[in-house]
Design brief:
The structure holds two protein chains of two kinds.
Chain A lengths: L5 H14 L10 H12 L3 E2 L11 E6 L6 H7 L3 E2 L2 E8 L10 E4 L7 H7 L6 E4 L11 E6 L2 E6 L1 H6 L3 E2 L1 H6 L14
Parallel strand pairs in A: 2-4, 2-5, 5-6, 6-7
Antiparallel strand pairs in A: 1-9, 3-4, 7-8
Chain B lengths: L9 H56 L3 H9 L7 E8 L4 E5 L18 E4 L4 E10 L2 E11 L1 H53 L14 H75 L7 H32 L5 E4 H15 L5 E5 L4 E4 L1 H18 L6 E10 L2 E8 L31 H11 L3 E6 L5 E6 L19
Parallel strand pairs in B: 7-9
Antiparallel strand pairs in B: 1-2, 1-5, 3-4, 4-5, 6-8, 9-10, 10-12, 11-12
Classes of the chains: A alpha/beta, B alpha+beta.
């Protein structure tokens, strides 16, 4: 197990208490943190209004290899965003993105990233990934490791193009907002 | 401190009372206003601090969610604009400190549990307040913001209020003094003037004085009215008394004059009678002498006894007439005071007495140089009467003793004539000095009883007095003074048993 900073352990502890999962803090990995963040992004995002699906659950989908497994499902079990439940699904292809709100693109998708993002063109789907250079390639949020803590960078123009509004709160805690400068510790 | 000074004027007391009352009222208003003001100020300060805490909480939601303490500290640093906030901290829902303000300081701000349903709570008293605000994200509590504030403005406010209250109190004192001076003019001054009038009235007994109050119709004016009425009443009575007294005096004078006139008439009458009686008496005496002288041959024993009896009666009657004339002169003759040696006078009287009755043996003791300032003629009558009395009443003693002397009682000289004669009953001492009153039968001791009355009149005219002490068969002492000295032992005119 890696040494995790005190603050990280605290926030993970908090997250653990939030979801009510009985997970010992020393078992938290960066993936656990990413899972929690994936869930939390929705709280700071405004999707373009869609009367047809305004009561539908917020849908988080995972493309490619799933690092989160059961933990993500446990996290979202009790969560609501603007009164809507959250559901998580695993996708085989980026084209299967109907009714999707947040899409996590796994590291395994590196090869197909260009096609994946092209398939999502203009759709109001928040794209998140830990792939290096994700923002440069048109992604919206990229996880980075900074001082051994999971942080994220934001490609604001990419999000705005699809009509997704990121709250200033979210931008405030992002390490980078400008896509051109989206860099971080390489994993 | 004495709250109500006793030794001050009414005006001062009123001023003091005024000040006290308004001061207390002001203090109450000040305290309640300050309390209300501070309370409401504190409430509004807490409210604004609460909204600050809520804003910070809202701005820290993402920081907590995405584990970014520096972002939260940036949010907290906005508090630097608030003068009151001393410290602040954000705790996660799990009770772990997430961020603090000031960022580098040592903040000792322990998390306190908020009441379950509340998103906002505050603790503390006075100027020190701790505010806790729950941070809620999408309906879920994720942490708490705590602000610790010291409301400096409250102290400033209290000070400012105190200053205002002090200034108002001073102003109030000024107004109270002003009102006091007004009171002095409208209430105390008339009172003082009133008291002065009363004092003048009582000092000079001038009941014609009146107090004239100002144009006010209050208790004071009714008081002065009553006072003035009382004065006029007294004045009236005074006048009535004065009139009655004058009338009485006039009447007394009249009566005195009448009495004096009657007395003078009586005296003149008795003097005339006594004087006129001497002529025929002298004739009788002369005829008696002629009868005896022209007797031829041996007169019969019977005749000569009858003639002797006649001559003795004539002598006795002549004495009586002399006494009466003395008595009359003692009241009517004018006083001519000059130094008199009573000792010398007494010894010459006793000498002449012993010449008239050479067969008697009388021991005389005379204190020398008893000087007085009195009418010599009248004093001669006094001593003659007293010594003659003693001579007469010691007639039955084998060894008679007559003493003249002087003692002192206080400042006054008291002269006395003492004998060891027949004496008298002390119970009747006052009767001795009344004319024609006798304690002894005239067969026993001859006399008509006006000698001592004459003595008393003379001494009274000199401003003195006379009294006697005696005991039956144990002698008598007659005291007299020429000054206005009254014996503390015996009042000459007093009746009743003598007290010694």
């Amino acid at each position: 197990m890696q040494r995790v900073s005190l603050t990280s352990r605290m926030i993970l502890l908090m997250l653990a208490s939030l979801v009510g999962a009985a997970q010992p803090p020393n078992e938290l990995t960066p993936y656990d943190v990413q899972a929690a963040y994936l869930n939390n992004f929705g709280k700071f995002i405004q999707w373009p209004p869609d009367p047809a699906s305004s009561t539908e659950p917020i849908s988080i989908r995972i493309l490619g290899q799933d690092y989160f497994g059961k933990k993500l499902d446990n996290l979202i079990a009790d969560e609501t965003i603007q009164g809507r439940r959250i559901v998580a699904r695993r996708l085989a292809s980026a084209t299967d993105s109907d009714n999707c709100h947040i899409l996590f693109i796994g590291l395994s998708e590196e090869a197909h990233l260009r096609e994946d993002l092209a398939a999502l063109q203009k759709k109001p789907i928040l794209t998140v990934s830990a792939l290096p250079g994700f923002l440069d390639r048109g992604g919206m949020i990229q996880f980075v490791l900074q001082n051994k803590r999971v942080r994220f960078a934001v490609n604001l123009p990419a999000a705005e193009k699809t009509g997704i509004a990121l709250s200033s709160e979210l931008l405030k805690v992002a390490v980078y907002v400008n896509p051109a400068s989206a860099q971080g510790d390489k994993e | 401190m004495n709250l109500l000074p006793r030794q001050r004027s009414i005006a001062a007391r009123l001023t003091w009372m005024n000040f006290l009352v308004s001061g207390i009222a002001l203090m109450l208003v000040y305290v309640s206003l300050l309390a209300y003001n501070l309370y409401s100020f504190r409430e509004s300060a807490i409210e604004s601090l609460s909204s600050e805490a809520q804003i910070i909480g809202a701005n820290s939601g993402s920081a907590i969610t995405f584990d970014d303490p520096s972002s939260a500290e940036t949010a907290l640093s906005a508090l630097s604009h608030s003068n009151d906030v001393v410290a602040a901290a954000i705790y996660t829902q799990g009770g772990v400190k997430f961020a603090q303000y000031p960022a580098n300081g040592t903040v000792n701000l322990e998390p306190r549990p908020l009441p379950n349903a509340e998103t906002l709570a505050y603790w503390g008293s006075g100027a020190d307040v701790v505010i806790g605000s729950r941070i809620v994200l999408q309906g879920k509590p994720i942490g708490t913001v705590y602000l610790s504030a010291h409301l400096q403005a409250m102290r400033r406010r209290a000070l400012r209020y105190s200053a205002i209250a002090g200034a108002t109190l001073a102003l109030c004192l000024g107004v109270a003094m002003l009102v006091g001076s007004v009171f002095r003019r409208i209430l105390a001054q008339p009172l003082v003037a009133f008291a002065q009038t009363a004092r003048l009235v009582s000092r000079y007994r001038d009941y014609s004085l009146r107090f004239t109050p100002g144009q006010s119709y209050d208790e004071l004016s009714s008081l002065t009215e009553a006072f003035n009425e009382m004065l006029s009443e007294i004045q009236q009575r005074d006048k009535a008394l004065e009139t009655a007294k004058a009338e009485l005096e006039l009447r007394v004078e009249e009566r005195t004059a009448q009495l004096q006139a009657a007395n003078r008439e009586l005296e003149a009458f008795s003097y005339t009678v006594a004087h006129d009686l001497r002529g025929p008496l002298q004739t009788i005496s002369n005829v008696c002498f002629l009868i005896q002288a022209t007797e031829q041959g041996e007169p019969s024993e019977e005749r000569s006894s009858m003639l002797e009896q006649l001559r003795s009666s004539v002598t006795s009657m002549s004495h009586m007439i002399n006494d009466l004339l003395d008595l009359s002169r003692s009241t009517s003759a004018p006083l001519h005071r000059k130094p008199v040696d009573l000792s010398h006078m007494a010894s010459s009287i006793l000498e002449s007495l012993s010449e008239t009755t050479p067969n008697r043996h009388v021991e005389t003791i005379i204190e020398p140089k008893c000087q007085v300032n009195a009418d010599p003629g009248l004093m001669q009558i006094v001593l003659q009467n007293l010594l003659r009395n003693s001579w007469k009443f010691t007639g039955r003693r084998d060894v008679a003793r007559i003493e003249f002397g002087c003692t002192h009682r206080g400042k006054a000289s008291v002269f006395f004539v003492r004998d060891n004669g027949a004496g008298f009953d002390q119970g009747y001492a006052d009767r001795l000095f009344k004319p024609f009153q006798r304690l002894h039968a005239s067969s026993e001791f001859p006399g008509i009883g006006i000698g001592l009355a004459t003595v008393r009149r003379i001494l009274t005219r000199h401003g003195g007095s006379v009294w006697a002490e005696g005991e039956i068969d144990a002698g008598a002492t007659f005291f007299f003074t020429l000054d206005s000295f009254t014996s503390p032992l015996v009042e000459p005119s007093m009746s009743g048993p003598h007290r010694l």
